[in-house]
Design brief:
single chain, about 325 residues, Structural Genomics Hypothetical 15.5 Kd Protein In mrcA-pckA Intergenic Region, Chain A, Pseudouridine synthase, six-stranded antiparallel beta sheet, four-stranded antiparallel beta sheet, 7 helices
């Protein structure tokens, strides 16, 4: 999520105005206007209200007021005024805000936190990633609907690709169906596995068993667990979770498939680390890497597991 925290003003030019929060401009927002960044971070706020704040000089960067057309850079911090209405809008935006990792005219990649469903379903009728993305796009006046091109389990964190409009959804969907996508995961499996290999046990799909394959490489070990980098060679529901359980090495925290409970972990230790594909719209290679979330980092620290960054790319 974008940084948003208490700011204590120090610049002389800010002495006459109280500020309560600052917003960090992310890498994906580099080169956008101040108004565009504000609509991304505060989607619950009417655009007219944000324009008014900018016109009145109440949004600042390094002590200087910004206007709606000011271009901002990654790492800039936009200071927000202390306001009861703005505080309410920031709170209301919590369930609407999304983390955009990469974006083009045809698609965007959004970070999915664990516990958030990609689609609507039982228990996720009013808050799911697809609805969040749609509300975010609607707040910016987008005339199309966003569609997820693939999915991640509710308990799995990682990047999700959304198509903008029906045509983009069809083109990107074919790219995924043809297996032209690289999906790399990090998983903590129980017990000890060989340094590398391929899981090739069949998994259930649409009422029958279907072949599935997952390549794995060990990137860390502890007495009780093996940290794996995995690459999906096929795309079946629960493929990694099911295959590791069938091999006798269920994921830590994966109670559905017999994985052990771990303190501080209320979901399977499974994270999509990288998503890469050949963009059919410009023929360039698109690639998004998503860092391991804090809850999974804490588990690794408790078990003295710290994979070298280069081994998990």
């Amino acid at each position: 999520m974008p940084d948003c925290h208490l700011f204590l003003p120090a610049a002389a030019g800010d002495a006459m105005m109280a500020f309560m929060n600052d917003l960090l401009v992310t890498g994906a927002e580099n080169g956008l206007t101040a108004l565009e960044v504000l609509t991304r971070h505060i989607p619950a706020a009417p655009v007219a209200y944000l324009r008014q704040l900018l016109r009145q000089g109440k949004i600042r960067r390094l002590g200087q007021p910004l206007d709606a057309a000011t271009v901002v850079q990654a790492g800039d911090r936009l200071l927000l005024p202390a306001s009861g209405r703005l505080a309410d809008l920031l709170h209301a935006s919590e369930s609407q805000r999304i983390e955009v990792l990469l974006e083009t005219r045809q698609w965007l990649v959004v970070g999915k936190p664990a516990g958030t469903a990609v689609h609507r379903g039982v228990g996720h009728e009013t808050d799911n990633l697809t609805d969040r993305v749609q509300r975010w796009l609607a707040a910016q006046g987008a005339p199309f609907r966003a569609s997820p091109v693939h999915r991640l389990d509710v308990g799995t964190s990682g990047p999700v690709l959304f198509a903008k409009g029906k045509r983009a959804a069809g083109v990107l969907g074919r790219t995924f169906m043809q297996g032209q996508v690289e999906k790399t995961y990090l998983a903590l499996a129980t017990g000890q596995l060989p340094d590398q290999g391929i899981l090739s046990s069949p998994v259930p799909a649409k009422g029958r068993m279907k072949d599935a394959a997952t390549r794995f490489q060990v990137v860390g070990r502890s007495p009780s667990f093996t940290l794996l980098k995995l690459e999906l060679l096929s795309g079946r529901t629960h493929q990694i979770r099911r295959q590791l359980a069938d091999a006798g090495h269920p994921l830590a925290g994966d109670r559905r498939y017999g994985g052990p409970r771990l303190p501080g972990l209320d979901r399977p230790f499974l994270h999509c680390r990288k998503l890469a594909w050949d963009d059919p719209f410009d023929n360039n290679r698109a690639s998004v890497e998503y860092p391991l979330p804090a809850d999974l980092q804490a588990v690794l620290a408790r078990h003295s597991l710290s994979p070298h960054e280069q081994t998990v790319k």
